[in-house]
């Protein structure tokens, strides 16, 4: 038995478990935050009428991180839900960061590079001012 | 209809969407869009935002289980995510300039085509010999089945990569996970065994949708009142789906898969012609 091959296999297995945990906890936390915000939202506005037939777009507090944190400070239900959404969107991105570390530990240079490319594309999309 | 009734019906719809999405690899978004636009008369832009959120929830929720069982090919997913995320960013930019009804019609036609392809071809058997690139990129792997661990090798990496870029672009443009095209690229072009391609597709949908969701969140497409029943319903559905997938025959999966994408395709074409988008 080749010792190197054995340790590498263990690392691949470890990465699978780690990624599985990251996804599970990310999803659980975002779901929990959304439930808390959602119940609070229904309690406040449940008897109102939904108005989604026209698009309102930007300008609402929950379309930016600063707006979401400001709303959280005011105890606003919509911003609590949106924090859950942000955690949900961040979950696969955090998964990529963890894969990057894991490939690094495996000394798999090719996949460190590939993972870095994917991460840069997403960060470009987030901060690249694409919301023209 | 009050916000409470709206929320409860949407919760049920999102549960079914999550269930179907995780079983077929389609993602949760495809059922959410017709549900919101046709049934609730919600503006398509809110529907796209909700579908993206649903896609991420389905993907992450069910992928966590498949990854741990070692079915998902993480390297293959990671490599193809270059194509899908780049495509998704392109799609989110194109969304500003494209009349969505035209894209919807084109997409519907593509989906019907892929449904026919899926029913005709069966790639259960794993390839014994892969292409040169599959070795360089370390894409060949193995997965657990009832009869023990099965090795498989891949071919036509370039073809699969190109279809993935297109899948990513449609994902960014329409807000769906494009799981159907992802499975098609892996199943028909690269010959990934169906169970591996379904789970790896699921795994990739989250990252692909996140790449365009960051843009749509800032554009105000994601509304909290729609997002929260969608997240909770889809997560519960995806959880049920991932438990069921281990017990259901792949043959049935294929039939459900083809039926689902054909129905969605007809829906998109109909709405495209009627300028409902």
UniProtKB/TrEMBL annotation, chain A:
Which Pfam families does the UniProt entry name for this protein? Answer: DUF1634
Question: So where does this one cross the membrane?
Answer: 22-43, 80-103, 110-130
Q: Which UniProt keywords apply?
A: Membrane, Transmembrane, Transmembrane helix
The domain of life for this entry's organism is Bacteria
State what protein this is by name.
Answer: Putative membrane protein
TrEMBL record, chain B:
Q: Where in the cell is it found?
A: Cell membrane
Protein's UniProt keywords contain GTP-binding: no
Q: Which residues cross the membrane?
A: 46-67, 161-181, 201-218, 225-246, 252-273
- Provide this UniProt record's keywords sorted from A to Z: Cell membrane, Membrane, Transmembrane, Transmembrane helix, Transport
Q: InterPro entries, alphabetically?
A: TM_pro_TauE-like, TSUP
* One cellular-component annotation, GO: plasma membrane
Q: Which PANTHER family match?
A: MEMBRANE TRANSPORTER PROTEIN YDHB-RELATED, TRANSMEMBRANE PROTEIN YFCA
Protein name as annotated: Probable membrane transporter protein
Q: What is the lineage of its organism?
A: Bacteria, Pseudomonadati, Bacteroidota, Sphingobacteriia, Sphingobacteriales
């Amino acid at each position: 038995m080749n010792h190197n091959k054995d340790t590498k296999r263990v690392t691949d297995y470890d990465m699978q478990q780690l990624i599985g945990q990251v996804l599970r906890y990310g999803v659980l936390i975002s779901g929990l935050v959304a439930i808390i915000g959602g119940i609070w939202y229904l309690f406040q506005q449940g008897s109102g009428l939904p108005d989604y037939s026209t698009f309102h777009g930007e300008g609402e507090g929950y379309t930016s991180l600063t707006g979401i944190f400001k709303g959280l400070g005011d105890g606003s239900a919509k911003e609590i839900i949106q924090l859950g959404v942000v955690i949900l969107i961040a979950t696969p991105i955090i998964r990529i960061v963890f894969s990057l570390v894991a490939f690094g530990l495996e000394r798999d240079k090719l996949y460190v590079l590939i993972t870095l490319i994917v991460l840069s594309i997403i960060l470009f999309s987030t901060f690249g001012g694409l919301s023209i | 209809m009050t916000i409470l009734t709206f929320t409860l019906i949407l919760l049920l719809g999102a549960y079914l969407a999550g269930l179907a999405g995780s079983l077929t690899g389609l993602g949760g978004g495809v059922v959410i869009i017709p549900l919101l636009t046709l049934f609730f008369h919600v503006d398509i832009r809110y529907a796209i935002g909700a579908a993206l959120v649903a896609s991420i929830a389905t993907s992450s929720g069910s992928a966590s289980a498949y990854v741990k069982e070692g079915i998902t090919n993480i390297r293959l997913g990671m490599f193809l995510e270059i194509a899908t995320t780049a495509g998704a960013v392109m799609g989110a930019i194109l969304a500003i300039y494209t009349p969505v009804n035209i894209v919807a019609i084109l997409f519907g036609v593509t989906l019907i085509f892929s449904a026919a392809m899926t029913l005709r071809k069966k790639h259960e058997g794993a390839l014994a010999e892969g292409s040169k690139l599959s070795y360089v990129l370390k894409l060949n792997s193995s997965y657990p089945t009832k009869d023990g661990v099965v090795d498989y090798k891949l071919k036509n990496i370039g073809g699969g990569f190109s279809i993935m870029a297109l899948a990513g672009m449609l994902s960014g443009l329409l807000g769906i996970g494009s799981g159907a095209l992802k499975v098609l690229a892996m199943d028909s072009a690269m010959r990934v065994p169906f169970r591996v391609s379904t789970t790896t597709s699921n795994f990739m949908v989250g990252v692909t949708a996140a790449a365009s969701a960051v843009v749509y969140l800032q554009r105000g497409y994601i509304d909290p009142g729609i997002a929260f029943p969608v997240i909770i319903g889809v997560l519960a559905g995806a959880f049920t789906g991932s438990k069921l997938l281990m017990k259901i025959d792949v043959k049935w999966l294929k039939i459900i898969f083809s039926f689902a994408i054909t129905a969605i395709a007809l829906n998109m074409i109909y709405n495209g012609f009627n300028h409902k988008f």
